[in-house]
Amino acid sequence: MTAAERDRSRGDRREDGEVVPPGRGGPEERGDADPPAGGGDGGGRSRRRAAPAGRRGTVTLKDVATAVGISQSAASMALADHPRISAATKEAVRAAAAKLGYVPNSAGRALRAGRSTSIAVVVPQTGRHVFGHPYFMHLLVGVTAEANAHDAALMVSTNPDESHGVAAYERVLRSQAASGAIVASASIGDPNVNRMVDAALPVVLIGRFVHLPHAASVGIDEIAGAAAVAHHLVEDHGLTRIGYISGPLDHQTAVDRYEGFRATLAASRRPCTHTLAVGDFSEESGTLAARQVLDSMSDVQAIFAANDEMAYGAMLEIRSRGLRIPEDIALAGYDDFGVSRLTTPGITTVRVPAESLGRKAAAILFDLVDGTAPDPVHTVLPFELVIRESCGSHPG
Predict the structure, then answer these.
(1) 292-311 average pLDDT score
(2) How far apart are CA 305 and CA 321, in angstroms?
(3) Residue 37's pLDDT is what?
(4) How far, CA to CA in Å, does 273 sit from each of 15, 157, 244, 264, 323?
(5) CB count, 10 Å around CB of 281?
(6) Which residues, in sequence order, are bridge partners of residue 182?
(7) Is 40:334 a contact under the CB 8 Å cutoff?
(8) Can you tell me the distance from the alpha carbon of 233 to that of 18, in angstroms, rounded to the nearest whole number?
(9) Is the Cβ–Cβ distance between 241 and 301 less than 8 Å?
(10) Across residues 61-71, what is the average pLDDT?
């Protein structure tokens, strides 16, 4: 048995006390995991090797790690000559990289060497409901703070419209100007997210991606957040006829919030009824969705919108009909980025720590670049139910 094989089998340390990253030996590291959705029958590695020569991402860090039988982070540490990795494992990784033709990201090498470089935030859909939302301003504040702490510049890659979403990814992958990327607001079926995760570039995702459990990600428990609001409406206020205004259901965040709301109503001992209207997280869509709810559900007692911008739009529609909040209809939102605090009455909502999400995502990204992050990394930050006057004092 070679020294590299002993490293993989022993896990945390060798007899001489040198720390060695464990080789889990699971399907992902052996290379026999199921291929990504939409792939052929030849497996992920063979598809990438079949790509045209010179194409960015043809050989990835994951390929090198799989060839040696260790995790991606351990392979990154080996290429960075990290002292935690044994000499034998470093030699095996370098040999595999040379054999496969792996070319490390130049910006990543600069950052590991302590030279100033850049990280990227990729926003693949820059429609008004995405990039113009206060959430992104808070997120970018957090990312920027962490980038400044590492003396790294921040670049934001966007696209003109949803049909050109691939452009936001391609700029980052082809330019090699960024040592790593944070992907925000990608839709569930966006195939480019898989490309980013499987490329050599370190990537952190914002939100939950159920089909990419091996990817680094940061988010909150959106199901539990929406469930907390639903419980407050049903159990604390006795409201059982509720209109729900969802965000775009091709985004996991919107799906999870709706699921948390719906599951809580189903679990209640009270006979609950709800109607669904779908918006795009904008104030205007909240107004239109509230109009749909009020026209379709008689005696509606409450409206719960999946973000505060839509809740404010719903408030405008409710008041345009001469109805009072909360005396006639209770109202709740989600996010707590400002508008919910400025209305009269203030809107009950869920506080999302967007700035902390940005800062944590960037911190994990720098760890991935350094090769010091565990593999995989999934971080869930806490949320807070903020109770204001918009739900009133309804009988239980």
Answers:
(1) 96
(2) 18
(3) 37
(4) 64, 42, 10, 12, 21
(5) 29
(6) 121, 204
(7) no
(8) 56
(9) yes
(10) 85
Angle at 347 between CA 342 and CA 351, to 5 degrees: 95
Tell me, what amino acid is at 103?
V
CA geometry: angle 363, 162, 202, nearest 5 deg: 25
pLDDT digits (tens, 9 = 90+) for 86-100: 889 988 988 888 888
The pTM for the full model equals 0.71
In the structure, what pLDDT confidence band is assigned to residue 30 with cuts at 50, 70 and 90? very low
Residue 44 predicted with pLDDT over 50 = no
Q: Which of 246, 345, 354 is nearest to 303 (CA)?
A: 246
Indicate the length of the chain as a whole number. Answer: 396
* DSSP bridge pairs for 34: none
Both tokens assigned to 328: 């006639």
Q: What is the 3-state secondary structure (H, E, C) of the chain?
A: CCHHHHHHHHCCECCCCCECCCCCCCHHHHCCCCCCCCCCCCCHHHHHHCCCCCCCCCCCHHHHHHHHCCCHHHHHHHHCCCCCCCHHHHHHHHHHHHHHCCCCCHHHHHHHCCCCCEEEEECCCCCHHHHCCHHHHHHHHHHHHHHHHCCCEEEEECCCCHHHCHHHHHHHHHHCCEEEEEECCCCCCCHHHHHHHHCCCCEEEECCCCCCCCCEEEEECHHHHHHHHHHHHHHHCCCCEEEEEECCCCCHHHHHHHHHHHHHHHHCCCCCEEEEEECCCCHHHHHHHHHHHHHHCCCCCEEEECCHHHHHHHHHHHHHCCCCCCCCCEEECCECCCHHHHCCCCCEEEECCHHHHHHHHHHHHHHHHHCCCCCCCEEEECCEEECCHHHCCCCC
Which of 264, 263, 295 has its CA nearest to residue 277? Answer: 295
Report the relative pairing of strands 349-351 and 384-386 from DSSP bridges.
Answer: antiparallel
Range picked from 21-30, 183-192, 355-364 for highest mean pLDDT: 355-364
Instruction: State the Cα–Cα distance between residues 140 and 130, nearest whole angstrom.
Output: 13
Of 87, 78, 69, nearest to 112 by C-alpha is: 78
How much is the mean pLDDT over the chain?
A: 80
Residue with tokens 């206060």: 134
